[in-house]
Specification:
Length: 154
């Protein structure tokens, strides 16, 4: 049996967030936010069995100091999406870090500062695993590690 997959980065699905390190005004996504059940059904109808879905750290932890806490509204939305995907026969692979990070993390020098990275990144990963681990097939901790590292170069 051939298995087909698709990728849906958070920037495409949701657009940019006012709490991310993206410069400029927030840009809307492609509508997935409100019609995910229909979109997942269409993907399944076309034979898609696996979906890499970007989880937006800036939405899940919009402010510093949240520790292991995630934004409940966004946890609920992602769980609804993951449940709808499962009901459609699609296994979701979660992407935790794409191109952008929360603005507060970037303001604290983010991955450029070992103490900041060691303090916040593992907490986000663990909180995400606790909130979504029962509904995902697997994880992509960093979507494009080499590209992300190159972005950090001065």
């Amino acid at each position: 049996m051939i298995e087909l997959g698709a990728s849906l980065p958070s920037l495409v699905a949701l657009g940019t967030s006012s709490t991310s390190d993206v410069d400029g005004s927030p840009v809307p996504g492609n509508g997935f936010h409100t019609r995910f059940a229909d979109d997942l059904g269409a993907l399944a109808a076309h034979g898609i069995t696996h979906l890499r879905l970007g989880f937006d750290w800036s939405r899940l932890q919009p402010r510093s100091g949240m520790g292991d806490e995630l934004n409940g509204e966004w946890v609920e939305w992602y769980r609804d999406v993951l449940s709808a995907a499962r009901a459609s026969g699609i296994e979701v692979w979660a992407g935790l870090l794409e191109r952008h990070v929360p603005r507060w993390f970037d303001d604290e020098r983010g991955f450029r500062d070992t103490k900041t990275a060691d303090r916040y990144w593992p907490r986000f990963v663990e909180a995400s695993a606790g909130a979504f681990g029962d509904l995902v097939a697997g994880w992509f901790p960093i979507d494009d590690p080499i590209g992300y590292a190159a972005r950090l170069e001065p």
